[in-house]
Design a protein that fits this description.
Radius of gyration: 26 Å
Number of domains: 4
Distance between the termini: 83 Å
Strand content: 35-45%
Number of helices: 4
Structural class: alpha+beta
CATH topology of the largest domain: OB fold (Dihydrolipoamide Acetyltransferase, E2P)
Number of strands: 18
Length: 286
């Protein structure tokens, strides 16, 4: 039975020095510690702790860089590479970057993390006994989250997206609060691992938050009106949308509610920038 296992931290003694590093032993088995895997120089007979992983050749090696995560512990790890048809690689604090499989990423690649985004992950093993990183499930975040105080209502909040859903995006804030962003409170779906800034629109009894990424109405009105003007300018000065249009058609095109659309159209009409005729809205030439 092996006494050293990949993905674990063990106590070893430096048995000897060789050309490319050190040979460590736990008294039964030996493992290589390359010079570039050592935080600092070590001496023969010195006792140390080391983390075990497979190098690029698939050989078990040791490093004295100890990752924050293990098979039971989650942490935010930075995305360092994105590989189509494979997944993304994260930095867990050791010389080798670890894969987060595409099986654990959104089906839409446009929602995959970017480099420098972060994922909340733990260690796991794939079917070939290779180390991978596994994103946290909803239950894990719910268990680890802190209850949010009621005085956060209407306050600005920031957090990182840990779960995606067409209806609701979930974030984990830097204070450790769990937040949910309904699709009506965002203009587009944020990607997994993205850092987002919004405001608290509800503090739930269970201590989680409802968050909006949309500006407050006064600011949004100007932004929505500008968006409508840009759309008209790009489409020959007219569009098949009015304040009577179908709400779903409005949301699909402008990513705003019908109520927000009507407010913006009303403002533009008062400013004599647009007019509505025969089921269409027209840009008024100055």
């Amino acid at each position: 039975m092996n006494t050293i296992e990949v993905g674990t931290v063990g106590t070893f003694t430096v048995a000897r020095t060789i050309e490319h590093g050190y040979v460590l032993t736990d008294g039964r088995e030996e493992v290589m510690l390359h010079f570039n895997d050592a935080v600092e120089e070590v001496e023969v007979d010195e006792e140390l702790e080391a983390f075990l992983y497979h190098d690029k050749q698939g050989k078990m090696v040791a490093t004295t860089y100890i990752p924050e995560i293990d098979f039971d512990t989650y942490a935010w790890c930075e995305v360092v590479d994105v590989v189509n048809n494979l997944g993304v690689f994260v930095d867990i604090g050791i010389p080798k970057h670890i894969l987060v499989s595409m099986d654990d990423l959104p089906p839409k690649k446009s929602l995959w993390p970017f480099v420098h985004d972060e994922l909340y992950v733990r260690l796991d093993l794939d079917k070939s006994n290779r180390l991978i990183a596994k994103p946290a499930t909803e239950n894990i975040v719910e268990y680890e989250a802190e209850p949010a105080p009621e005085d956060l209502l209407h306050k600005p909040i920031s957090g990182r997206v840990y779960r995606l859903n067409p209806e609701v995006s979930a974030i984990f804030t830097e204070e450790g609060y769990q937040g949910f962003i309904h699709h009506t409170e965002r203009k587009e779906e944020p990607r997994l691992g993205e850092w987002v800034k919004g405001r608290v629109i509800e503090v739930k009894g269970v201590g989680s938050l409802n968050v909006s990424l949309r500006p407050v109405k006064e600011e949004a009105l100007g932004e929505d009106a500008e968006q409508i003007l840009r759309y008209l300018e790009k489409n020959g000065g007219e569009m098949p949308f009015t304040d009577k249009s179908d709400p779903d058609a409005i949301r699909d095109t402008f990513k705003i509610s019908k109520a927000a659309f009507k407010r913006a159209i009303g403002t533009l009409m008062k400013q004599k920038k647009v007019k509505q005729e025969n089921g269409k809205t027209f840009l008024i030439s100055e």
